Amino acid sequence: MNGKELTRASRFLSRVLRHDPGLAGIRLDERGWTDVDSLLRGCRRAGVALTRAALEEIVATNDKKRFALSPDGARVRAHQGHSVRVDLDLEPTRPPRLLHHGTTGRFLTAIMAEGLRPMRRHDVHLSPDEATARRVGSRRGAPVVLTVDAGRMHDDGHVFRVTGNGVWLVAAVPPAYLDAPTGQDSRA
Ligand code: HQG
Question: What are phi and psi of 126, to 5 degrees?
């Protein structure tokens, strides 16, 4: 497969493994895993020619390391980002003192008033570094990077988890723990 075909297959896998397993005629188990052989058959039926080798290449080289193979290589799942109900079975973990969330200006007033909400996903996604948050925000327009007082949230009882590819998850971030760049905080 060439780069373009791999990207297309990777996008399709994101949709199937996070949002719509029915597209490939498969099911996810309660932890989000699915059997690789059925997945490859389902992808072929849906018109996305995917071999075992190509899947392994996608898992290894995907820019955000979105997917994981089980240790025996028989199953695969998305690390995070699901809209279908799955329990990723991640341990509650103490976060670093600060985390970051990349968004864009038009959401800022709502976010500073009601906090960060998971919207269509299970959790709010936070990045350990500003550069990653900036990339996330730039998917939707000129990026704005918010700082989250994660250490204080954790001390106040909010539960954080971290995925295998380094994304921090939390149910919501109330506005009191958010900082916007100078001049952009509508509360200021
Ligand atoms: C915004 C991608 C109004 C939030 C990325 C975001 C990430 C609010 C959007 C991962 C709000 C939701 C997640 C509120 C939050 N009012 N807007 N109260 N609270 N928002 O895509 O964090 O490519 O569900 O700021 O790289 O952008 O899929 O979340 O703009 O890692 O692997 O509502 O998805 O990774 O958008 O991105 P999303 P996100 P993948």
Answer: -125, 150
Q: What is the pLDDT of residues 107-137, one digit of tens each?
A: 999 999 999 999 999 999 999 999 999 999 9
Alpha-carbon separation of residue 31 from 50, 102, 112 (angstroms): 23, 27, 33
Kindly report the CATH number that applies to the domain delimited by 3-78: 1.10.10.970
Work out which ligand 1 atom sits closest to the CA atom of 167.
Answer: 31
**Ligand 1 centroid from CA 35, angstroms:** 28
pTM of structure: 0.89
- For ligand 1, the distance from its centroid to the CA atom of residue 72, given in whole angstroms, is 32
Distances (CA, A) of 177 to 22, 88, 112, 130, 146: 38, 25, 10, 16, 10
Identify the architecture of domain 99-179 in CATH.
Answer: Alpha-Beta Barrel (3.20)
Domain ranges of the chain: 3-78, 99-179
State whether residue 126 is helix, strand or coil: strand
Q: Is 114 in the pocket of ligand 1 (CB under 6 A)?
A: yes
Output b/e per residue, 68-99; b: 16+ Cβ within 10 A.
bbeeeeebbbbbbbbeeebebeeeeeebeebb
Question: Closest Cα to atom 18, ligand 1: which residue?
Answer: 111
* Size of the chain, expressed as the number of residues it contains: 188
What is the spatial distance between Cα 169 and Cα 140, in angstroms, rounded to a whole number?
Answer: 20
